[in-house]
Amino acid sequence: MKSSEVQGEQMERSSGKENRLKRDEEEFLRQKKFNQFDVIENDDRLVLHFDEDHRAGEEDFRTKKIMEEWRILKKGLPPTIFVRAYKGHYDFLRAAIIGGTSMPYCHGLFFFDIKFPASYPNEPPIVTYHSCGFRLHHNLELDGKVCLSLLNTSKKESEKEWNKDLSKSNVLEVLLSIQERILNSRPYFDMPNKQTLPLPSWLYNKEEKSKAYNEGIFALNCQTMVKIMHKPPKDFEFFVGQFFRDRVRAEAILRACPGDLYPKFYQAFRKDESLWSVLENFQSPALLELGKGSKAKKAKKNQDVEGSKSRKNQDVKGLKVKKNPEVKGLKVKKNPDVKESKMKKNQQEKDRKVKKTTLHYGNVKIILM
């Protein structure tokens, strides 16, 4: 009976393990196919801040134009841009752009929310950037505003403006313009007042200034990466995880990022087993020192705890040692008095018993005992 129960439990465990592995494999295969463009189920909370009185689908013409945008995106997206559309909210898109291979936007992920207004296609879509609290470019403001001529949010003679004809202006072109005109390798030259930048006075050469500016922007890019790793945008969680788990990319980020940002990447990477293995295998002196420092700090903490316990025990022991002599001395001082008192009392008792009383009757002396 017992052996059959054991066998049954083992079979249940093995079948449960197989089911879990199967589910994990199916989930991995499903998510591994993270298409360039996909339409997924709508989450009202996702687009709450974009809600308007006008709803997508109320005008056949507008809806038709949005569907045309979807087809253009599905066919024309490059490998570095990913877009998600939503069932029930046709007027909302979320896009991710991968930074280029050169500084300062290399290895970064940049997310944008796209809303088709009621006046679309006569007016361009509204694009909002996920800044994570860092301004990485003059045309990417902290509140998410994207300044681009194609969006009618910036005016440059060399750039064209929005055209309601989708063959001339569309969301794909907007995303490609952001990638080309904003997330490029020379953001310094997009600044309107280059002379007012907080750079050292000895940097007279424009290329040197551009290089110094790129280093500062890349530091902000690294901080943005950490924020995105901690809290990926909705519906891009798996994409973000897989992106930063790439060993080559992770090592490249660690090589390039400023030393003072190592602790942030260290904390972000160690929460993920795949990324932690990258840290263990990445022989960076700064990271090794950080790891040693962490271990040393922990060892010091243990030593402090041990020392505190030892001092406490010594104090308690010393207190007992100090206390006992006083008690002992008190007893020594107290005992002679007690003994003397007892002896005196005993003597009085004895004297009372043996006390002699003498009576005189004339010439006769009588002694009473």
How would you sum up this structure, described in words?
The protein has nine helices and seven strands; from the N terminus they run αβαββββαααααααββ. Helix content is 52%, strand content 11%. Strand 2 and strand 3 (89-98) form a beta hairpin. Mean pLDDT is 73; it is low at 48-53, 283-288 and 326-333. It has a domain at 34-282: Ubiquitin Conjugating Enzyme (Roll), CATH 3.10.110. The strands form two sheets. It has a five-stranded mixed beta sheet, sandwiched between helices. The protein has helices spanning 2-32, 60-76, 171-182, 206-230, 237-245, 247-256, 262-270, 273-281, 285-354; strands at 37-40, 81-86, 89-98, 109-115, 126-129, 357-361, 364-368. The termini are far apart.
Can you lay out the helices and strands and say which pair or pack?
Layout: H1 2-32, E1 37-40, H2 60-76, E2 81-86, E3 89-98, E4 109-115, E5 126-129, H3 171-182, H4 206-230, H5 237-245, H6 247-256, H7 262-270, H8 273-281, H9 285-354, E6 357-361, E7 364-368
Parallel strand pairs: 1-2
Antiparallel strand pairs: 2-3, 3-4, 4-5, 6-7
Domain UBC core: 61-226
Biased composition (Basic and acidic residues): 10-24, 301-352
Organism: Papaver nudicaule
Principal-axis shape: elongated
Strand and helix order: HEHEEEEHHHHHHHEE
Unreliable residue stretches: 48-53, 283-288, 326-333
> Any idea what the radius of gyration is?
42 Å
Question: Class of the domain at 34-282, according to the CATH hierarchy?
Answer: Alpha Beta
Could you tell me the mean pLDDT? 73
CATH topology of the domain at 34-282, what is it called? Ubiquitin Conjugating Enzyme
Q: What summary fits the major beta sheet?
A: 5 strands, mixed
- Helix count? 9
The helicity comes to: 40-55%
Distance between the termini: 100 Å
Instruction: Briefly note the structural class of the backbone.
Output: alpha+beta
The CATH architecture of the domain at 34-282 can be named as Roll
Query: What is the number of beta strands?
Result: 7
What is the CATH H-level superfamily of the domain at 34-282? Ubiquitin Conjugating Enzyme
